[in-house]
Amino acid sequence: MKEQRNGLLLVISGPSGVGKGTLVKALMERNQRIKMSVSATTRAPRPGEIEGVHYFFKTEEEFKAMVDRGEFLEYIHVFGSKYYDGYDVILEIDVQGAMKVKQAFPDAVLMFITAPSMSEIKSRLIGRGTETMEQVEKRFATAFEEIKMIPQYDYVIINDVVDVAVHHMEAILEAERCRTSRSNYLSESIEDTGR
Question: 26 CB contacts (<8 Å, ≥6 apart)?
């Protein structure tokens, strides 16, 4: 019997500086059936980021106009009808966005990425060298609030060693693909026996 499976909607979030982008990139390099959904942001591009690949970079005015037109929620709804083609799709979004997706798509798989400790998060933020110390402190304060949301997620991944963290993500994806609620094996078996 040929396996036919729906793609998973995978939501990745966590504090700034924990390596979400690094993990997602490594996961996609090792798994050809995973696609990335591109988000919009009002922040400036970081070195190496490409418009339409990493983010759609918008001004505050453009972003607000898109919100007013309902484009983001509409995009999620349109996108939601498209991810059942056997590809798994990743949304790398903040915790507020993750909760909205969870509400709209209860079968989405939510993973929270974090560093081994809060001091490590702060070190990584400083080490990026892309923000002022004031910005680092704001992001660090936000990280405390975001970590409180971990119980709302299905899984938490500690990004200490990239290869280990990616292996954990792959194990979760494999287990989620085997969920009985995601399988049409039983209904096809019953149909095949003529019952």
Answer: 162, 163, 166
